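Teaching assistant here, posting this on the class forum so everyone can see the example we discussed in section. The complex has two components, and the goal was to see what a joint structure prediction looks like when all of them are supplied at once.
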Amino acid sequence: MEISEVEKEAMESGEDVQAFQGRYHHLDPSQVLILPADTLLQLGGTIKSVALHPTTLQKENPGPLLSDRFNLALFQGEKNGVFLYNASDTMSYSGMPNILIPLLISILIVLNTMISSVFERKHEIAVYTSVGLAPSHVSFLFVAEAMAFAVLAAVLGYLLAPSSAAVLAGTSLWQGITVNYSSTAGIAAMVLVMGVVLLSVIYPSKVAAKIAIPDVNRTWTMPTPVNDAMSITLPFLMHYHEHASICGFLYSYLKGHQDVSHGIFATGPIEVVDAADIRHDDNRLPIAGDCVHLRAKIWLAPFDFGIMQWIDLRFCKSGEGDDFLEINVRIERRAGESGLWQRLNGPFLHSLRKQLLIWRSLDADGHAQYSRLLPESTAGKGETP
Amino acid sequence: MSSGNTGHTIRLRAVLLGLVLAALICGLTPINNIYNQATPLGGGHFPLAPFYILLLTTMLAGLLAKILPKARLITGQEMLVIWLQMVIASGIAYTGLTRTFFINLTAPYQFATAENNWQEILQPILPPGLYPGKGAIEPLYNGLVGGRQMGWLEVLANIPWKDWITPLTAWAVFILLCYVVMIALINLLSRQWIHNERMNFPLLRVPRLMEESYDRGELGSFLLNPYLLWGLSIPVMLHLLNGLHFYYPSVPQIPTLVLAGHYFPKVGLFSGFHKLKIYFYPVFIGFAFLTARQISLSFWLFFLFGGLLYGLLSVLGYNIPAASLGVTFGPTLARPEETQMIGAYGVFFLFLLWLSRKHLQDVVKQAFTPGPIEVNTEWFSVRLSFWIAVAGMAAIVGWAVFFGMRPLTATLLVAAFFMITLVASRVICQGGIGYFTLTAAPIDGLLILFGPALFSQIGLIVAAVSQKVMFVDLRESLMPSLLHTRQLHHQMKNRRLLLFGIGATLVVAVSVSFAAMLALCYKYGIRELPLEWATRTSLGVYENVIRLQETGATAGSWVKIFSGAGALVMLVLVFCYNRFYWWPIHPLGYLTAYSSAMRILWFSFFLGWLFNAVCMRYGGVVMFKKLRLFFIGLIIGDMLMGGTWAIIGMFTDGGYQVLPD
């Protein structure tokens, strides 16, 4: 048998299923009977509500007083209409000014300790950055260290407190102090301690970050687009003979993002064009000579905004010399808002650069494997993305 | 999305087979779901029976393809087309239309008592063309005399059709107009949503991958993939044990429901979680993994925030009574805090329009420019879609005005209907929610904005009843299925045939469902059938109408405050989502914060999000493509067990339900 949701929930929770008390029901006066209370009680009725009519004039408004006293919702008819009086608990704070000064003192102590610690460990920070930690990672190290100390201090303090209370309770030192370590005040104190430490370590961790060498995210800025197009030469110089491997690696990276709307971008059709193989065609993206082009349609996440662009990764001989390979990325916006398109391309380009760093870390077998993955040039055959 | 197998066109026989199966599902649904009380054939936007049939036919076709490789009896794309036809039909046959339809039209007569006095206050104002003659109602609830001994055809012949012909015609016009407008709107928006916004369709992922691998001849390696098999094994073991426990209680059971509400107090900051439940459904965990992680994160996060809000308000001293809601028509609307959804839906709809602004400008330009027009991948041109949508909506307004509504009210009502349905379709399709319910109804928004004076007496009845017919029980609604269909047809050829298939399916589904439901009700009588929910909710519509008309109660100020707050929160979410590329929460999740579906699904979305986030963080897209097969295995396994136990349940006295009821 089908039951209502409320009844189902109640049954699942093991409660006795009571009648579903709906919302306010208006009863027509012709459907209301007025009987003496005794008669009704004898007939098996139960008290649902009580109405009071004070016989003497009240000086104060009894509504708030009564609702506060009985913790009940009371309807009171007044000259201006019927009002509902309801009482509930509110929160109250006390004692905050007493701990403000000790808090300030502890913040300054921790700040001082952490800053001197940062300056003493300059060499250590240099080692961190040389193995590749970004400044944000370095600052987080200091924050984590401080939090570890905070936790230790809070736990030790919590252990010390009842112990000292047990030892000193009867002595004159403890006169006038009442303690309650089982209440939430104990937890609030621990949270306060950790919060204070966290606050104090913000500035020292920033100092540590400044000392560290900045990483790629901070030194590189996006170029300004011209006519909805951007051209970026990636700061890598490879050997020209490696271009098949790099191209294959990036091809498999782009191909991996086909068919999925997860990650920071999604790829449509991909085309590999060797400029040496084709004739100039007005309907296609402009082709630079002597380059291998990897071209694709890319949608940038979040996909709801419909930001779509064509990218052209060009692997060309570098100006430094024919033996060297330069990688240039040309991006043309095709759909979506321009401002958002520029913002979203930041993470996309960073991910491309990261892929090239990953390629660098591969061994010779890995390079060979990716050069085999590169499909033949689809010049003149495939669809334009 | 990937290009489908455009080499093979869809053949007429596939569409016709889909029609036959759709008709079969519609014919069997009332007797299966209602009379036999068996596992529902449909149930949500990823219905059980169609997927079970798809799975078995794909496996069978795969085996046959090995034996007769050149026969090409059926392609994967064709099986997807058939599957979608069945999905559309299964919704119409039950909660999507038929379940409450006949009760809706007969409740004012059947349930008129001396206490509610409907004979005097309600029946005189009901538009006669929309309700059946008196002679049809009594046998509907009590059954025809000797009906139980009659065969089905005999019952059909004995139904008092002359009492039904007028209302069925009137409602058929309304229903088909609504369906036509839905098709036109989906066609209009498909290029923007599917191509420009690359909408992710988690509910379609499993059938598509399965059929694409079948078309490539790799079905074996797909189904026997180790990841998939591991994923499959979890629901299989789980439901094997639990199903056996259902029949043989001595077999141990693995609990899939944890009543977490007991750990929270009834008062205080966490009082909103007093009824918290944790359900474990492998199929929904699978869908959550396939959903974008911003969306799955926002679903469970906003659900928890919503619960926290109750507690926060009570701790700050605000105990807002439920009476300040006034009279509402929302299916699960119980507290004033939930009316945030009204403002949120409105703002999100505007956000959707803003995202599509360029596309809509093109559409309007094409609509008013004469000359030949190119059809890209849509069913028909956007110009035609535009005019059909406008004409269709105008026709629905005309229909409402014909039955007594004021023109302005009817226009606002139709706009509200389609606005809510569009937003809900987006939530269901993009969020991968297999089971969705609305919080507030379209009329509630209109009542809050314009007050009850917007509706005349008759207007309110027509509005409330037509809302109940089509636009408030969205658990198995049509529009999300149409959007799914559009996505699948996006890359297929001969779209005219496909469109014909959809249209024919709709007509057949409505006709067969109505006939089957009427036959069931006239044979046994609604009184004897377990239609409590349908009866209660249909009665609730009329009770609310009467209550609103008698008291004229406007929504309290709290409701207006919460609606405004909801709009503001959604605005902030949308702004942050646009402005900050790192913003991790999708505004979509806010819309389901108070949905009763999220009470069941929230933990599945949490798990799915967790796995997705960790996988993408540490493994990237490559790992995601491997790992998703595990979660696809969870989905296939759960549905497989659901269908198998449903079949077993048909031959036994009780049925073990795998999926939520």
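For the discussion questions: The longest strand of chain B covers residues 257-258. Chain B touches chain A through 51 residues (CB under 8 Å). Think about how each of these relates to the inputs above.
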